[in-house]
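Recall that a protein's primary structure is simply its ordered list of amino acids. Everything else, from secondary elements to tertiary packing, is in principle encoded there. The following example makes that idea concrete.
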Amino acid sequence: MIGGISSAIKDSVKKFHHEAVELSDYLAANPELSSAEYNSSAKIARLLERRGFSVEYPFFGLDTAFKADFDNGPGPHIAIMVEYDALPDIGHGCGHNLHGSLSALAGLALMELKDLYRGKIHLIGAPAEETDGAKTAMAEGGVFDGMSLSMMMHCIGGGVCQPNMDALSLRNFLMEFRGVGAHAVAAPWRGRSALAAARKFLDLVDARRECFTPDIRVNGVITDGGRKPSIIPERAEIEIEFRANSMAKLARLDETIGKCARAAAMALDCEVTWRKSFADFADMLRLGTLEEKMSEILAGVGLKVSEVSPPVGSSDVGNVSYRCPSIQPLLSITDEPLALHTAEFARSTTTPQAHEAMASGAEALAALALDVLNDDDFRNAVKDDFSKQVAAKTGGE
């Protein structure tokens, strides 16, 4: 970074830190579920508008989405993603209250630093990350096209940060098997068991597992297996999701799942149809140029940093990463190795340690943004890396 910018970043973050802490703790105390984040989204949007951002709310046809822009003249465009939905029963067990507020804090800091760059800052309020992921539709709809960088942080525990979060691509199907109902005792020969076909489908998928590559995950549950044991089920339903480390591999896995479904239905004289229950989540398109820079920045703000861990889930940030250079560092907010999606983790987001981590995370995002905005060579290197990785990932490896 150019001399003097580091202290300027710290000062700008400090100016708005108290407001961001109040916002995070408010969201923690008033959690709202996916697509129902009316108060949460409004509170964030109003804060940004009050501080000088031009806000479109609602945005993209979604009641709880927003887009807040700060136009600082001709130059690169930077997107900062903001999450704020909670989980049923346990509230903000994924830390969206804190890292969503962190995104707002980074945006406010960059507005304060306007004399140090030219370009445009866009804060994208993206609801429903815990369900169907608004960022999937936003990415498909071109919201992130043309951005030189899209970024956010995600909370974790354990005392060590990571420069990015890896993620697997994800597809979900509701599979309906149709047979013929009959009395299971008086005349079972007149029936065709949809449940037997559904069970055989799961057996066939299991038979394929020994030939899966290590990244592939397939999980399914029977959501409808009939009504009474005395009746041969005429309908059965399975919800199945499968993941892989690229969209190309996900497409091939889709073919395998389809073959297993059709074979099971044919063997049991049944029929099968299926549909997606939500849009695909893409794997994370990782860029070494961004990860190396973020590792340096995180260490520079005093945080412990490790290598990126293998993926253990999926994120709609992956969809964004196929449209523009993207990064989602993992920010430790507690030294305890607490699991996400737990009440314990939700409570950890309101501690002084978490509040302090928020400031460090916002400093790191602001620093990366300034590097992309001001350093033409670095920005072009990121762009080239992005183009190469897209070609590699979509080439059917």
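The domain at 5-167+281-393 is CATH 3.40.630.10 (Aminopeptidase). The chain has a mean pLDDT of 96.
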